[in-house]
Amino acid sequence: MTQVESTGLLKRFRNTPWKFQKTFLTPLKDLPHFVATILSTHESIQTGCVTVDQVVFDPKCLSAMLAKHSLSAQITRDFSITAHGRVEIAELLEAALSDSLEFIFVPTPKPFVIYADHDEYTTVYANTKSNLNSVVRPLLAQGFKTDEDYERRL
C-alpha cells in the first residue's frame, strides 16, 4: 500500500458527469462478501485508491490497517491511499466501509467508481449502462439491497 496525494481527485470526481448510478445499503455485517462481489466483477482491477471526503468518527479500522502496513498518517479530508493487488484492495475497501467515513474508491482500470458515506450507503457510478450493470447485477444476485428511491447528488 502506498499513501498518495489526492491532487484534486475529489473535485474531478464531482465534476465528472456520471451518467449512471445505483445505490446499495452498505451491509456492515457482510462486508467481506460485498467487497468480494464488487471486485469479482472486473478481474482486470490492479489497484484501488480510497480518497477520504469526510471523517465523521475516528477511523479505527482504516487506522489499524495502515499500522499493519507500517504506514502512519493523519486521516483527514483528501487523504488518499492506494492498494496494489486484489488482497490489498479488498482489505482497503473493507476497512474504509467499516469506518464512519465518506470516501471515493477508484479502481484501475476504472470501469466504475464508488462513493460511500457514513449513513451506510454505497453508490456505484459508471459512464455506461453496461459498466454499471457489470457491478450491479452480481450484487443483486448475491442478495444485496438497493435503495431504489435514492439518487446521490454530487
What can you see in these coordinates?
This protein is an alpha+beta fold and 154 residues long. Helices cover 34% and strands 28% of the residues. The chain has helices at 9-15, 31-40, 60-68, 86-98, 129-141, and strands at 2-5, 20-25, 47-55, 79-84, 101-108, 113-116, 121-126. α2 (31-40) packs across α4. It has one domain. The protein is globular. 32% of the residues are buried. A hairpin with a 4-residue loop joins β6 and β7 (121-126). Strands 1-4-3-5-6-7-2 form a seven-stranded antiparallel β-sheet, sandwiched between helices.
Strand content: 25-35%
- Tally of individual domains: 1
- The 3D shape can be described as globular
Q: Unreliable stretches, pLDDT < 50, 5 or more residues?
A: none
| Oligomer class | single chain
Class derived from helix and strand content: alpha+beta
Strand order of the largest sheet: 1-4-3-5-6-7-2
